Amino acid sequence: MQNVDQFDTEAFRTDKLELTSGNIADHNGNVISGVFDINSSDYVLNADLVNDRTWDTSKSNYGYGIVAMNSDGHLTINGNGDVDNGTELDNSSVDNVVAATGNYKVRIDNATGAGTIADYKDKELIRVNDANTNATFSAANKADLGAYTYQAEQRGNTVVLQQMELTDYANMALSIPSANTNIWNLEQDTVGTRLTNSRHGLADNGGAWVSYFGGNFNGDNGTINYDQDVNGIMVGVDTKIDGNNAKWIVGAAAGFAKGDMNDRSGQVDQDSQTAYIYSSAHFANNVFVDGSLNYSHFNNDLSATMSNGTYVDGSTNSDAWGFGLKAGYDFKLGDAGYVTPYGSVSGLFQSGDDYQLSNDMKVDGQSYDSMRYELGVDAGYTFTYSEDQALTPYFKLAYVYDDSNNDNDVNGDSIDNGTEGSAVRVGLGTQFSFTKNFSAYTDANYLGGGDVDQDWSANVGNAANLLI
């Protein structure tokens, strides 16, 4: 292995540097080495770079030498100074090649969270000053540099840094606002289920209720990518009020959730707290309007492993406010059935803080806005067993459009992290009234087609309908 610590055109004296295997000199004094490591040097090699290996794995002489460097290093290969390197014939035992020949892999050894795209993308690593070179160079690895991974790519007689996908830590940081929105959407659905159930089954006079909610999400907008599991609980209290030609349910609720988001080595532990006020008006003509307002706080702890094995972590907090509005009409099918077409709109508006990861990647605080529009239909039927007991199975089918056109600045570069698109929601559920004052319910939903697929979500809860 040949190692270079600083710029020095006379690091060693040789006519050829042969990168194959071992670490010896042949009978002509030419260096044979498996790895040529220039570290961060701007190194000029006034010798031929040679080996007899090929990139073709089907050949018996497949193999490679390794040129290793940091991302700020540069290697210039001038050859040994013969008059015509490109057309030289095999006239001597000393030099019978152009400035570079053979097969090589280029290894990037460093990793850092600092630096902009302009610092790395298409940066030249190697230049062979011989247009007739037939050497082939390919990537030995991917390196985490700033927000993206990079690898070596040959372009003619040069080798440059090719930008690849987001690093694991940048992917997690940019995915956090979308994952926060997923938690909030589950909470919105939980409040919505409570209000929907209050209109069906036995008479609901309001009271205390509690519900578990959870779900799994897969996000992919072509830039960010993640898998997320969410589990939470909501508790609420509400009351029934008659007035203005409507039956009203007015209440408040609190939600607490934990999320686990990951992709490759990236991991985010999420905590969420939300406070809700909500109401529903069910008019005599069977038109209803549901509404809610809320405040949410999200805390996210991020960790990942860099390409060089270094552990990186960081944390961020964000506050948000949101709203929900739903309107529809209950078509009664006899005394027990219903079909309810509805439309709804909801929005979450997040404001996060600036933060820096332990590897010096900087994330600017982001105002992340997400709107959801939904058109659907609910249908159900109530089976009454006695004056106090009833079972109401129900079905949901809806079209959903998420509008979340967002981007965030990482190390000064703007990167798309909005998740949006059209999706279809399908849901099944049931509500069982044990007595006039106590009921339980459960439902499950699937939502897929947009940038975020909700593989499943569930609500399991009960309500003690005590007049207050």
Please report the distance between the alpha carbons of the first and last residues: 82 Å
Classify the oligomer. single chain
Helix content: under 10%
For the record, the CATH class of the largest domain is Mainly Beta
Radius of gyration, in Å, reads 32 Å
Spell out the blueprint of helices and strands.
Blueprint: E1 2-3, E2 16-18, E3 23-25, E4 31-33, E5 35-37, E6 42-45, E7 48-50, E8 65-69, E9 74-77, E10 103-108, H1 117-120, E11 124-128, E12 136-139, E13 143-145, E14 148-155, E15 158-166, H2 168-198, E16 206-220, E17 225-243, E18 246-263, E19 266-283, E20 287-305, E21 311-329, E22 331-333, E23 337-352, E24 355-356, E25 362-363, E26 367-381, E27 383-384, E28 390-403, E29 407-410, E30 413-416, E31 421-435, E32 438-448, E33 452-464
Parallel strand pairs: 1-5, 2-4, 2-7, 5-8, 6-9, 8-10, 9-11, 10-12
Antiparallel strand pairs: 3-4, 11-15, 13-14, 14-15, 16-17, 16-33, 17-18, 18-19, 19-20, 20-21, 21-23, 22-23, 23-26, 24-25, 26-28, 27-28, 28-31, 29-30, 31-32, 32-33
Structure description:
With 468 residues, the chain is mainly beta. It is built from two helices and 33 strands. One of its GO terms (cellular component) is outer membrane. InterPro entries: Autotransporte_beta, Autotransporte_beta_dom_sf, Autotransporter_adhesion, OM_autotransptr_brl_dom, Pectin_lyase_fold/virulence, Pertactin_central, Pertactin_virulence_factor. Pfam families: Autotransporter, Pertactin. This is Autotransporter outer membrane beta-barrel domain-containing protein.
